[in-house]
Amino acid sequence: MKQQSLIFEITQKCAGNCVYCYNVWKNNVPYPERKLSTRKIRRLLQKVIKEVNANLVTLTGGEPLIRKNLEKIVKFLKNLHVGVNIITNATLLNEKRIKKLVSQFPNQVEYKEFLSYTHMSQIYEKIDILVSTNIYGNRTLPVIETMSAKILVVVFDVLDTKRSIINKKTSFLIPPFHIKKFIQKLKLLIENPKLREKMGEEAKNLS
Ligand code: SF4
Q1: What's the pLDDT tens digit per position in 66-81?
Q2: Are residues 127 and 84 in the same domain?
Q3: Could you list the residue range(s) of the whole structural domain that residue 172 is in?
């Protein structure tokens, strides 16, 4: 069946501050703060899904989880028999909300709770590159742990990040806010498995 996909910005609000964010409210312009009620969202979604014959709806924002009743909208969509994607920065994803989502999507969402280092190692085996757009520092446990598992990282060169990474040797350090460079390096790694392997060895040795 052909995929008819609908992307729905369910809110423009977000507590994040990503450098690459295109959301208009970030530019300090007057912007209407009003939000649609859940009832209106349901009506709107139902109408558009029918008109465009969509079978997949992606809920995005802003940050969709900022809507406290997002799960109700997801449930509504499920009852309309359309697939649902949620694009989220996950900062509002606490245990209660994860469990709610797992109960709604038992086949798509898996909640692993606490993971021992052995389990984490199994997950690391399935990862090639760690991308962090953190602008407050990247000398973090996930960065160090993944590098010790030979996984390369692409991160902004902020604060003391360079104490954990030798640029171009063990991973890539990108000057803050250089999005174009960030994407170039990411693309380079995605397209060069041999380079990933070589740099991965160096990353392991350093960490
Ligand atoms: S999480 Fe998304 S909406 Fe929020 S600031 Fe970052 S890019 Fe913008």
Answers
A1: 998 898 999 999 899 9
A2: no
A3: 117-206
Last residue of a domain, one of 102, 129, 164: 102
Let me know whether 96 and 124 are in one domain.
no
Tell me, using a 6 A CB cutoff, whether residue 21 lines ligand 1: yes
Distance (Å, rounded) from C-alpha 196 to C-alpha 188?
9
> Cα torsion at 65, 70, 73, 75 (round to 10°)?
110
Buried b (16+ CB within 10 A) or exposed e, 101-122: beeeeeeeeeeeeeeeeeeeee
Domain annotation covers residue 108: no
Please identify, by atom number, the ligand 1 atom nearest to the C-alpha of residue 62: 3
Ligand 1 atom with the shortest distance to the CA of 23: 8
Q: Are 58 and 7 in contact (CB under 8 A)?
A: yes
Query: Based on the structure, what is the number of domains in the chain?
Result: 2
- If asked whether residues 96 and 145 sit together in one domain, one would say no
Residue 137: which CATH number? 3.40.50.2000
Q: CA 97, 89, 197, 173 torsion: positive or negative?
A: negative
DSSP 8-state secondary structure symbol assigned to residue 23? -
Could you tell which of 22, 23, 25, 28 is best to mutate to test the pocket of ligand 1, judged by most ligand atoms within 8 Å of the CB?
Answer: 23
pLDDT tens per residue, range 94-123: 888 888 888 877 776 777 777 787 888 888
92 occurs within a structural domain: yes
- Could you tell me the distance, in angstroms and rounded to a whole number, from the CA of residue 11 to the centre of ligand 1? 11
